[in-house]
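Page 42, continued from yesterday. The earlier attempt failed because a stray header line got pasted into the input along with the sequence. Redoing it now with the clean sequence only.
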Amino acid sequence: MRLPDEADIPAQINIVPMIDVIFAILTFFIMSTLFLTRSEGLPVNLPKATTATRQQVSTKITITLDESGMISLNRQPVLVNSLAEQLRTLIGSNTEALVIINADEKVGHGQVVEVMDQVRQVKGAKLAISTQKS
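This time it went through. Structure tokens are written below.
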């Protein structure tokens, strides 16, 4: 039973919890898409080039030279002297293997040439240098 002085209170829908849920779902999707990028090498600051093109080969091997001069072969640390032998092992009988050099823009030219020389000693290895599109 209602008292005569009470006014009818219209039904209300509180949308604040719905907005919280939408923002939580949006945050989840944003964070999950950040992890969808496929990085083949270790993160380095690549030099920029306007004529960069994408290479398509079935087998890709990545050599990373970071800012401190550390060399990694498919994310595993390696010495320059053993680089050619480990590449031969990875390539095996495959005749089409693309070896991508990811060198930080601060790495010295001499060290990059030294790595390139090791790659050229391996039969069946095609050489590519990774850059960023400017």
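Notes: The CA atoms of residues 31 and 117 lie 41 Å apart.
Reminder to self: strip header lines before submitting.
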